[in-house]
Predict the structure.
Amino acid sequence: MKKNKIYEGKAKILYKGPEPGTLIQHFKDDATANNNEKMDVFEGKGVINNRISEHLFTLLSSIDIPHHFIKRLNMREQLINEVEIIPLEVVIRNIAAGSLTKRLGIPTGEKLNRTIVEFYYKDDALQDPLVSEEHIITFGWASQNELDEITSLALRVNDFLAGYFSAIKIQLVDFKIEFGRLYKNDEVYVVLADEISPDSCRLWDSQTKQKMDKDVYRENSGYLLDGYNEVAKRMGLLTQNGASKNKKPTLVKG
Ligand code: UDP
């Protein structure tokens, strides 16, 4: 049966789902960086990210974070609830890196004495500019209540994930999440959407500070999937030790 594509982004495709109100989220192998200046395909990236994101969303259910994820369907696809995406990239930072260091001259790796939540307006043509709550409310991208809910959920997700990664000797430096509006029984709920994977997080080895995320691709400092495989391995999602470009990793069944 030909699937009905409703959206194609840089790393994912959304298809109509089997039931009204559901979608299929398909993870591609494509990687882009620097606003599409760089584009490459890493065979198997979609499979790893599908699995990592499934695992993290499932864990977040245990602390009652509402989200769009329903179940993984196959190696590359998951069934999700259809939501209206709130056009904000919500970035949570624990350690200075990336645009924060460039914008404010803060040294990379400096531990922040409190967690920072930032909002970027999702607009490729404008290159996702950093915006304040005032902009968001004024231009109607989200209401004050929604923003309060988003901030509170983002901080809870951060607390949980930072602890989870710390236990597997990974520092959660920063990450980007997105939220959507779920319409159900005449009510509207703000829920976590999109994905959480090494494409959207900065993950450093706690001891060596080695990067295990998309920065490896942005900076051309190694083979991207070595780090992704290592994250999956520490999360207990890979059976094989030392998965690399040449040795195809095997995903644990489940
Ligand atoms: N991020 C993302 N998508 C984006 C921009 C950022 O997933 O379009 C993630 C990025 O991987 C990092 C965090 O958000 O974990 C903070 O990114 P930053 O603002 O430092 O921007 P960058 O240095 O990636 O341009």
